[in-house]
Amino acid sequence: MDFLLIAINAKYIHSNPAVYSLQAFADRVHPGVVSVMESTINQPVDDILCEIYDHHPDAVGFSTYIWNIEIIRKLLTEIPKILPDTDIWLGGPEVSYDCEALLSEFPALTGIIIGEGETTFTRIINRYVEWAEFRNNEDDPAYKAARPDFSGIPNIALSGTEPVRVDAQVDMDSLAFIYENGMDDFENKIVYYESSRGCPFQCSYCLSSIDKKPRFRSLPFVFREIQYFLDQKVKQVKFIDRTFNCLPDRTMAIWEYILEHDNGVTNFHFEIAADLMTVEEIELLSKMRPGLIQLEIGVQTTNQDTLLAINRPSSITKIARVVKQLNENHNIIIHLDLIAGLPYEGYRSFRTSFNEVYAMAPTMLQLGFLKVLKGSPISKEVEKYHILYADHAPYEVLSTRWLDFDEIQRLKRIENMVELYYNSSQFTKALPLLLTAFESPFDMFEALADYYKEKGYFIQTPARSKKYEILIAFANEKTSVDCEEILEALTMDYYLRENPKSKPDFVKNVPARELFNITYRDPLTGNFTLNETVDEEESSSGL
């Protein structure tokens, strides 16, 4: 019996902890029955299909999300043709809320696992193993052709039957540590770690709002597993806890352990609620090595009506104060998130949210768009808010009562500019200079996005060095910023982050004089580092 769990990730550097957790849970009862295959959405469907065929599994199970459901749909139509005797299962957040429609659309599906999967999946494996033993011990061809009986297993959907839904939440301490057999399968990949499930908040756009009571892995387990990552010198460990700092004492204990056992290499990423931060937590973080801790903070919006509508009570004033305190030592990488397309947030309101979050000076400002996820509370309110969204994954917003399609497209172009020119940390001297020509940061990125569209750069993506030349042309054509000042600033930005073998065209007319000392923000650590002066004679690149 071979059950193949398949994870199709968004990028090669990603991994899927869910399939490894299912495998580890089942291995305790039936070791060796379950295997794992990982791929990416960028791999051709035919290649993925060939890899599945080479396994010749008795059953396959897909871990489904908004980023991979479209490619999985294609595979569901092809697998029955080449592997007609292979059972096909689906599980994950993308299929837990419309089981009947999927079973009707894909008759070859054996079943769908609903919700949290470890216990349910192990029960399915039990039935397969019993079936395999029974089939192998019987000589009657009728018995050999019989299929496993999955009736009576809760939290699965089968064609023609009503699923029995029960609370299948596992004890977090009962979960296996999926990396205990070594890190070979995760080399050059982001390592994800789960120390809790559930979320204390009930944000209407998020599926975690359904699981209202957080569950936690005991600290002795967490300490031991963090130490394992440190001993292995893993580059980054990304905690996937939805709100890591919802229990202050637990948060402090884990951060104190990381501080005391820092190996100088490993970076830890946490998703937190800034308005829950305590004075003690901020003081502790101030002692961390630059780059040791990375925090992701979902601000989403600063519009109070919007925050109430999405059931996310937040104190924007406290968030700003906490981010300011965290920034004071320049040692914490801070990602702040915004979501466009939420109720009561129009284009002008989003401009305000953007400017207020930009003023908090995050290391990265991540601009996302509302996704109407199946099963989320907001999916039941789309008519109320006149939300139109795409029928295909990732079900992104197209328009709302407050934001039309054209405005959303404009915000997407602005998002692109923020990624290229702010989040890249490549223009830390030029951007503040350009900003002096605009009323607000949003207006600057909006004008830059309009310029990109006007010149056709969204169609033909500029090369890396070309971005500097575009910014010079933009400054000269669309702003009153002094030409020599912007040229000097961009030259500084270029040589701080590049190691060119020859002088690029845009700096050939820069005066041959000593450039001043500056500090700049390291894109990896968020730290500001003093640089040596660079002059015409000493620079190996000829500046």
The CATH architecture term of the domain at 190-388 is Alpha-Beta Horseshoe
The major sheet is characterized as: 6 strands, mixed
Could you name the CATH homologous superfamily of the domain at 190-388? tm_1862 like domain
Percent in helix: 25-40%
Low-confidence stretches: 512-521, 523-543
The counted number of beta strands is 18
Computed Rg: 26 Å
What fold name goes in the CATH topology slot of the domain at 190-388?
pyruvate-formate lyase- activating enzyme
Describe the structure.
With 543 residues, the protein is of the alpha/beta class. Among the domains are: 3-157, Cobalamin-binding domain (Rossmann fold, 3-Layer(aba) Sandwich); 190-388, tm_1862 like domain (pyruvate-formate lyase- activating enzyme). Helix content is 37%, strand content 15%. The chain is built from 17 helices and 18 strands. The protein has a six-stranded mixed beta sheet, sandwiched between helices. Strands 7-10-11-12-13-14 form a six-stranded parallel beta sheet. A hairpin with a 6-residue loop joins strand 17 (519-521) and strand 18 (528-530). The longest helix has 20 residues, at 118-137. The protein starts with a strand and ends in a 13-residue tail after the last strand. Residues 512-521 and 523-543 have low confidence and may be disordered.
